[in-house]
Amino acid sequence: MNTLSERDICTKFITPAIEASGWDRTTQFREEVNLTSGRVVVRGNRASRDEKTIRRADYVLYYKPGIPVAVIEAKDHRHSLRDGIQQALAYAEMLDVPFAFASNGDGFLWHDKTAGGALLECAIGLDEFPSPEVLWQRYLAWKGIGPEATPLFSQDYHTTGKLPRYYQLNAVNRAVEAIAKGRQRVLLVMATGTGKTFTAFQIIWRLWKARAAKRILFLADRNILIDQTKTNDFKPFAGAMTKIEKRQVDKSYEIYLSLYQAVTGNDEEKNIYRQFSPDFFDLVVIDECHRGSAAEDSAWREILDYFSAAVHLGLTATPKESEEASNITYFGEAVYTYSLNQGIEDGFLAPYKVIRVDLDKDLGWRPTQGKVDARGQIVEDRIYNASDMNRTLVLTQRDQTVAARISEFLKATDRMAKTIVFCEDIDHAARMRHALINANADLARENPKYVMQITGDNEEGKLELDNFINPRRPYPVIACTSRLMSTGVDAKTCKLIVLDRTIHSMTEFKQIIGRGTRIDEDYGKLWFTILDFKRATELFADEAFDGEPVVIYQPSAEQPIVPPLDAPMPGDGTLEAGADGNAGEILGEPPGSKRIKYLIDDVAVFVVNERVQYYGNDGKLITESLRDFTRIQIGKRFASLDNFLQTWNDAERKAAIIAELEEQGVLFDELAKETGKELDPFDLVCHIAFGQKPLTRRERAEQVKKRDYFARYGGTARQVLELLLDKYADAGIGNIEQLEVLRVAPLDRFGAPVEIINAFGGKAQYQAAIRELEQSLYQ
């Protein structure tokens, strides 16, 4: 038994035991199930998945496909029966199931959360594994699902096409469970990019197939959301589904998709929804339910009131909780929450780094006495700051400075990287497009769609939105917008988010950040950058950014419950609904307001400060300076300089120590950029953590040459070592420790690696020579 691997134990003992107790191999259990994809780790401009963070369950048991009930963790026979139980419990918690089993082939250790007053854990034989029906009945009791609710809760998923991820299963099952138990208002909170629409489809499918919801209304506030939903996730509904577009509705369908704006109006004949009887729909799904109009008596509120007998399912990435509005007060506590940080930790969402840019005039600018703007207006004498820019004060040279910094970043990374620039209003978006066209004249000359204004009033720009989203279409590359693209735009390959808009609303901020969080590995999109000119990313430090929503607003008898709202901030202007019904672009001022906007062309604007913040390995932005962060991380591993030097000198491969520190979050490439010198990780550690004077790689290489280190070698061996030293000076220690380096130019001219190694007398002698070279480098 001790010679059998973990896979052997599974094949010879665990799987036969499961099957013998009645579990169907094709539908009721899966082996080696990847629950997560592995967190994306960004180092400099490179990204890779951390395979150690992949969560993989040896077995997941399902009563039906999509309804997991148990997890089994297998170990080889060198482990005890109990050794896998804590791992199994962690996976069981992720999957929201009460049963966890561990096995080494001798039997099973069974952890049973449904046991009540009985033993929570017990050992059972291989022939005592519980049957599907036994676990299912205990599972239903644990969930509190009675006989009348069981048929709905156990309704089949739509199983053709993509498989739901673990958190999507949890969201679907929790929502169906709540509805099966009679709950009328249900809220799901899922971070942008985690598949809310696909989750909604599975919920609707199961309710529809069970005939618990015979007619469904799906509401969204963007045409693009409706169209994407209809052609993608909701495609299996086919002939049973229609989009409400005409004033006269066809009542022969069962699934209706609609914009809020398409079914509401200011007078009776425009309110299309009244063509349906109040009890026509059994389920109303409100996508992006944090959004809505600003008035309590709005038509948006009227829809929910009119269909009040239906179940209302709210979907949002950003639950609205304020003194004026509350998702939770309307829907109740969320039945399931999957946060941005959890999505990044699991590897389903892209991490980010932040470059915060401060402009001198944003920090405070006062006009000279009697200053006249480009329109002939005398500029009010006061101090203007960041909150005034592009609202009450337009400095056109500021546009040019921002455009130059955006272009500089793209030129240093990828000029064809999809980029969204969020501007203050439509006028600002138009000016920013103009500035970016001039800053990228070479590419704009090749294709005028390199930069496009995509706002609610711009028909040409809106027609290009699908092309911007489509990763197979290279143009447009840069989209200048205001509100139109802040939500509902599934731009998987967006690699740069530019913030040049004052953002007070946490809801809006999270929606904007969500434009970059999707991953598309086929197109090399694993992470993204936020270029922040308005210090909006300070909201990352707010506990509300990724915390659990809490109820702030409680209605009184005089203040009835209102649906979730997302009114513009005071002074933000009025929201425009474009020709396609897409609300969200600021056009002007509130009725009756006469705020003056000054336009000034002759005031220069300069970048005065930049700060880069990285997404650390603890799932949070690094808020201290990179040097301070590095000093702290290195201090956790090495108590003193002597401790580090001894570990470094004793290591057979220096690359292993470098990799270990990188896993702790040390960013050697970025630190080297900060110092402005080509420093080896060894020198970066000694200099930053322990205050030692550093040497560049080339200086270290020159010292080795001065010591006449190569005198003991001759012929091919000496030439190889000299070239390896040059390789070190150019690219660092990691290169010379790899045998693969012998295959590349100019070393390949000495023959195959085995021939080169033989020139040293064999592999042991070659490796000894490399160690001596390293000792001389770090002497």
Briefly, what is this?
With 779 residues, this protein is an alpha/beta fold. Helix content is 34%, strand content 17%.
The coarse overall form would be flat
Give the distance, in angstroms, between the N- and C-terminal Cα atoms: 51 Å
Number of strands: 26
Range of strand content: 15-25%
Question: What about the largest sheet?
Answer: 7 strands, parallel
Number of helices: 27
User: What average pLDDT do the residues reach?
Assistant: 85
Low-confidence stretches: 292-298, 548-593
Across the major sheet, the strand order is 11-12-10-13-14-9-15
User: Helix amount, in percent?
Assistant: 25-40%
Question: What Rg is obtained from the alpha carbons, in whole angstroms?
Answer: 31 Å
The SS-based structural class is: alpha/beta
Tell me what the structure shows:
- The protein starts with 5 loop residues before the first helix and ends with a helix.
- Helices cover 34% and strands 17% of the residues.
- It is of the alpha/beta class and 779 residues long.
Task: Sum up the structure in keywords.
7-stranded parallel β-sheet, 7-stranded mixed β-sheet, alpha/beta, 779 residues, 17% strand, 34% helix, flat
Can you lay out the helices and strands and say which pair or pack?
Elements: H1 6-20, E1 29-34, E2 40-43, E3 46-49, E4 56-64, E5 67-74, H2 85-95, E6 99-103, E7 107-112, E8 121-125, H3 132-143, H4 150-153, H5 166-180, E9 185-190, H6 196-209, E10 216-220, H7 223-231, E11 241-243, E12 255-259, H8 260-263, E13 283-286, H9 299-306, E14 311-316, H10 327-331, E15 336-338, H11 340-346, E16 352-359, E17 393-395, H12 396-412, E18 418-422, H13 426-439, H14 441-446, E19 451-453, H15 459-463, H16 465-469, E20 478-481, E21 494-499, H17 506-513, E22 528-532, E23 575-577, E24 583-586, E25 598-600, E26 607-613, H18 626-637, H19 641-650, H20 654-663, H21 668-675, H22 681-690, H23 697-706, H24 715-731, H25 733-736, H26 753-758, H27 763-777
